Amino acid sequence: MAAEQETKARRGGYYGESVDFGVLYRNQRGICGICRHPVPFETFAVDHVRPTSKGGKHFAWNLQIAHKACNSRKNNKLPSHLAP
Ligand SMILES: [Zn+2]
Fold it and tell me: N or C end of the chain: smaller count of CB under 10 Å?
């Protein structure tokens, strides 16, 4: 899953760095950055704190782990034409 997002990020061509999502998960102690509840390692998604559509970068400092459901709920708040 994490590898898929990494590939998608690169294909999108937006500016960023290669982020180790396993490290990200450990640094955030497996806590969802949106609802603050634990999220299983097998199912976590990676969320841009500042959306790339609003100028956020794909760097570790702008990334947080989240439940897939939380992540898509957040994304749904954005106008669809701005979604990455
Ligand atoms: Zn959550």
Answer: N
Distance 69 CA to ligand 1 centre (A): 7
What pTM does this model have?
Answer: 0.69
In whole angstroms, give the CA distance from residue 51 to residue 40: 23
Please give the distance, rounded to the nearest whole angstrom, from the Cα atom of residue 28 to the centre of ligand 1.
Answer: 13
Q: Give CA–CA dist 52/13, Å, rounded.
A: 11
Condensed to tens digits (0 to 9), the pLDDT of residues 43-52 reads 999 999 998 8
Distance 37 CA to ligand 1 centre (A): 6
Unique residue bearing structure tokens 């760095």: 17
